[in-house]
Amino acid sequence: MTSPTDDRSPNLPRGWLRAAVVSTIALAFVGAAAGFIAFLSQLRGAEIAPSRRADGIVVLTGGSSRVSDAMELLAAGYGRRLLISGVHPTSTASDISRTLPENQSFMTCCVDLDRTALSTRGNAAEARRWADGRRFKSLIVVTSNYHMPRALVEFSHAMPQTTLIPFAVVGDKWREEPWWTSASTLRLLLSEYVKYVAAELRVRLEDFGIDLSPEMSEQPAGQQPKRPATAQAN
Q1: For labelling alongside 231, which of 11, 18, 122, 157 has CA 20 to 30 A away?
Q2: Do 37 and 62 lie in a common domain?
Q3: Is 103 within the bounds of a domain?
């Protein structure tokens, strides 16, 4: 006859395994939630003028009013030149200037267009080439507030010796309603948080010589894929 102890014994390892899996999932959830809160704490709710002037200004395309805000910083003398990174290959300086009539004069003298970058990592690589070519040691980085943490991760990794000054653009929707009341804004933030974590992980691995995803914009000209007509840099 099998004793009660014998009946229970085979179930003990399975119970411990189940408890370990549940505990691991719970810890992962708590860690992700804490990380998301830390990510949100980095996002500015209002636009704040840069703390200082810089050699150059870099704006990353992909969000409303980013370019116009960057042009205003250029006009105010916060930088000597402006790089608009991630411009669609079919867009020209004339196309951009028509949307910014008050700053058209700066388009001819002080603005450069980067049509190569396909991602935030590509933006950073092209900004590094642009800054190195002009011997710029400081840059104001202009992008949306929700995108700024990831942009700074990429830019700091690409140009560790360059002083980076963030200028976070705050969209109208962000100003008008709390992010937790909008399902679309919440989805955007969660998506950006995942990309931010992935960027942090990738650059840390690269510090150990492990490159999991070589950036296409680092390839020589002629070897890069064509950008779809509707693509944006980030």
Answers
A1: 157
A2: no
A3: yes
Q: What is the largest CA-CA distance in the chain?
A: 96
Instruction: Give the residue among 224, 227, 208 at the shortest CA–CA distance from 216.
Output: 224
Based on the fold, state whether residues 33 and 76 are members of the same structural domain.
Answer: no
pLDDT digits (tens, 9 = 90+) for 171-206: 887 877 888 888 999 999 999 999 999 999 999 998
CA distance 151 to 54: 17
Q: Which two tokens stand for residue 185?
A: 């804004």
Report the chain's mean pLDDT, rounded to a whole number.
83
**97 plus 152 within the same structural domain:** yes
Do residues 205 and 211 lie in contact, with contact meaning Cβ atoms separated by under 8 Å?
A: yes
Give the Å distances, CA to CA, from 6 to 2, 16, 18, 159, 169.
6, 17, 20, 64, 66
Q: Are residues 61 and 155 in the same domain?
A: yes
State the pTM of this model. 0.80
